[in-house]
Amino acid sequence: MEEKGIGRPATYAATITILTARNYCSKDGKYLVPTELGRKMVEYLEKFFSGVINVKFTAHMENRLDDIAENKDEWHGVVDSFWNGFKDLLKNADASSVTMKSQPVETDVVCEKCGHKMVIREGRFGKFLGCSNFPKCKNVKPYEADEKKPVSKCPQCGKNVYALKTKHGKHFYACEDREGCNFMSWDIPTGEKCPNCGKALVRKGKTIKCSSCDYKL
Ligand SMILES: [Zn+2]
Ligand SMILES: [Zn+2]
Ligand SMILES: [Zn+2]
Asked: Mean pLDDT, the chain, as a whole number?
């Protein structure tokens, strides 16, 4: 973004947080790696919205917005000209039958409602188990991460976070560095820090929120 001159430095961190929190990409060391969902989303956007999802458009729009802010242009005209083009793009995309669904991965977990196998599906909020007999059976359950595989990176120190169980079988998430860092959380940490207060962002049901302040995505 910096190279292409788009966005504002203040928005870079928030952009990366949203991309990872919504599962469009994951972090590998200092690199961002697109997920399957992320690749599909880009494919979709490029197919239907290439007119507005491109660097030239973004830079141009930012300049026009700056002009409005500096009273050099009038916002009605700017919004009008954008909307006239955009509503046709929307109509086209709506009429298409493209889906963001990823290929399900089979598991040995048996659906307790109908006896079919459950499959791992990937949605906007990460992985979950869904019945392979969908749409006849709509059973879904949380995807219990393999305890030997890290669920995310520690928002405090960047090491691995694992899902663990208490004596009573309740799950929690803890940093592998139990001596130095000692991060732990009842909710799944996304691996990101809150842009407001710097504490861990966690996934609670369908929302991503800060473990400390009111911040919510
Ligand atoms: Zn089922
Ligand atoms: Zn840690
Ligand atoms: Zn916060």
From this structure: 85
Domains and CATH numbers, the chain: 9-95 (1.10.460.10), 105-142 (no CATH), 152-210 (no CATH)
Compute the distance from residue 173 Cα to the ligand 2 centre, in Å.
11
CA of 26 to the centre of ligand 2 (A): 18
Query: Could you give the CA distance from residue 181 to residue 153 in angstroms, rounded to a whole number?
Result: 12
Handedness of CA 80, 83, 84, 85 (dihedral sign): positive
Of the pLDDT bands very low, low, confident and very high (cuts 50, 70, 90), residue 124 is low
Q: For the segment 49-65, what is each residue's pLDDT rounded down to a tens digit?
A: 988 888 888 888 889 99
User: Directed axis angle between helix 75-95 and helix 55-69, to 10°?
Assistant: 150
pLDDT per position as a tens digit, 153-163:
898 998 988 88
Distance (Å) from CA 114 to ligand 1 centroid: 4
Of the listed ligands, the closest to the CA of 194 is: 3
Q: Which residues pair with 152 in a beta bridge?
A: 161
Which chain residues have CB less than 5 Å from ligand 3, an ion? Answer: 194, 196-197, 199, 210, 212-213, 215
pLDDT of residue 211: 92
